[in-house]
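User: I'm curious what two different proteins look like when written out as structure tokens. Can you demonstrate?

Assistant: Sure. I'll show them one after the other, since each token string lines up with its own sequence. Here's the first protein:
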Amino acid sequence: MDATVRNYSTTLRIIAVLLGAVLVANLFSIVTTFQQNAVARDRAVSYEARVQEAQALVDRQRNIILDLVTDYESAAYADPGIDRIAEQQLLAAEHQLVALQILAIQNGQIIELLSATP
């Protein structure tokens, strides 16, 4: 009978240790999930701020592009000092470079937003 009690006692100790290990694993999982949720909330808040900044940048750049077209038309066609097509083409190339730089900035913003999506 003592051998049977010892076997039950050993078995119960093993079960208690295993249950303790499961409890520790579950607590670790709960803490990890809580931390991940906190990080996700922080990223979502910063993401909204970055989206608003990007929207403001796009609005400013849209105005710059519209002004760029107006500036080109006045510089290339309204200026009496520009009488050769080569001068008009040079002005067009300069304005196209500025427009391409604006597009590159916008693409960089888009990539940054997509890479940091919460």
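Here's a second, unrelated protein for contrast:
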Amino acid sequence: MLVRRLVRSDSVKLTLLEAQDIIETIAKRNERPVEWSQRVLFSCDTNKVNGISYKIPDTEIYENTGYSASHIMSIIRMMLA
């Protein structure tokens, strides 16, 4: 999963350009951070980003910022696995 790759690659000094490419791919695919989630993490489609969202400057990518504490903990566990 690309979210896992994004987080883990930070430990090997992922360049900013590579991170942007990964985020763009996640947004285009409307990839969910964990399989059971109904929400996407990033999207180019504002209809796919539920609740509160944040538009990443100089892009057409929106970040979903409306996750519950439980959801965030599940994402962190997935990334550390």
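A detail about the second structure: The chain has a mean pLDDT of 78.
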